[in-house]
Amino acid sequence: MANGGARRAAGTLESKIMAVLHRAGVPLTTSAVQARLGEELAYTTVVTILTRLHAKGLLVRAKEGRAYSYAPISDEPGLAARRMRAVMDGRPDRAAVLARFVDSLTDQDERLLRDLLEGA
């Protein structure tokens, strides 16, 4: 890995792999993901991250011969919404979380949220 054995944050690798899969628009095998990353990552590292993302419910996988191909379960905005929902579900006081979130919105984002809620 990087200088002096420094470890890369798993979240950074997960984000990079998710970006590769989103850009591809089709399911990719581990080898294809590894090639598209353009970094010197071990095959086993890519397998580990893909397996973790699948276990987290962020990817679907299908058997292709002896390997799996992976694809995101949702587009990037859908995944962001899923993460936001997971945070909400993990908090006992949803009203307080929502209130803090709304307080942090810009005027433009607040108008957008109102428009979306009224159109729902």
UniProtKB/TrEMBL annotation:
GO terms for molecular function: DNA binding. Keywords: DNA-binding, Transcription, Transcription regulation. InterPro entries: BlaI_family, WH-like_DNA-bd_sf, WH_DNA-bd_sf. GO terms for biological process: negative regulation of DNA-templated transcription. It comes from the Bacteria. The keyword Transcription applies. Belongs to the BlaI transcriptional regulatory family. This is BlaI/MecI/CopY family transcriptional regulator.
